[in-house]
Protein: DegT/DnrJ/EryC1/StrS family aminotransferase
Organism: Rhizobium redzepovicii
Amino acid sequence: MIEYESLAQANRALMEELEAAASRVIRSGWYILGNEVSSFEAEFAAFAESKHCISVANGLDALILSIEALDLPTGSEIMVASNTYIATILAILRAGHKPVLVEPERETFNIDPERLPAALTRSTQAICVTHLFGKACRMTEIAAFASEHGLRVIEDCAQSHGARYDGKLTGTFGIAGCFSFYPTKNLGALGDAGAIVTDDDEFADRLRHMRNYGSKKKYENVYIGVNSRLDEMQAAFLRVKLRSLGQVTEHKRALADIYFANLPKWLAQPLRRPAEYDVFHIFGIRHPARDELRQWLLDNGVKTEIHYPIAPHRQKAMQGILSGDYPIADELHATELSLPISAGHSGDEIERVCSLLAALPEKLKLAA
Ligand SMILES: *Cc1c(COP(=O)(O)O)cnc(C)c1O
């Protein structure tokens, strides 16, 4: 069986260093906002080519706190992709604003810059882009549109650690880049973790207060904050894993090259644009009979995933909140299939997946 991914295998490869990190934290007697957190923040800021990194408890909090820190009028409209992971939309709602869904490009799964003008109203204050599957959105166009209309840009980088557009890192185009280090992400902790990167001193200072009860000086509260701190243990693990993120990314890109060289041409596969440095968090193909294809692959020894089975506007929680028709999101949610592409997979395994897909039964040879 070819697994979709194995976290145990990935982390076992770093066992000694992770155990040493855990032991160091336990022995230190200091578990919240200490040296591991400040060191990780400095190291991740350097990686992210950003002036500041503010670590938080998870990726959703990174988004909520960043949007709150913009200090927009309550009920502002914020544009967001209609097919993003639900967290991006939840964050806009949690911050007290109105998500305005914009359809993605079918070929990249990312928000379509050409559809931004039609979604613009007098209440629009920001665009929250998601670099889905590890592929950068068309940030040059999006940033130009935002600056022309005085909109703030927040980037959901939960799937795009190290991805670039026109040579520039995702997370550095807008005022804030929001990262998740959920265990399955390209940079994953051994629990929940997240961070915000920014070049803006004031914004960073506000976030440092907000993640810790609105306080930077003990018992002095400047903002109505929350408790969303990264703990020393996760920071220590992340410092270990950050050191091999470059290798993980290169490995995933090499596996993607095997897919591109060997997948049958009729199969709808990720679009590669010269401007993008894609980190392939997910390798998503599209197929009109996705569920049958998935079952057939499973019967033939390959596990896959679906990102994601239900479009945000179809979620029960969003009834009466997200209205309108989003046919591209519907289509993508009905046709997407994620093939194995993890740090633990070998080139041979990916070649086997390709051979299987080249030998599909006639009834599954359908182009999306
Ligand atoms: C994982 C993810 C998040 C949320 O991260 P958590 O750490 O689980 O809160 C947000 N946006 C996207 C696109 C994600 O993939």
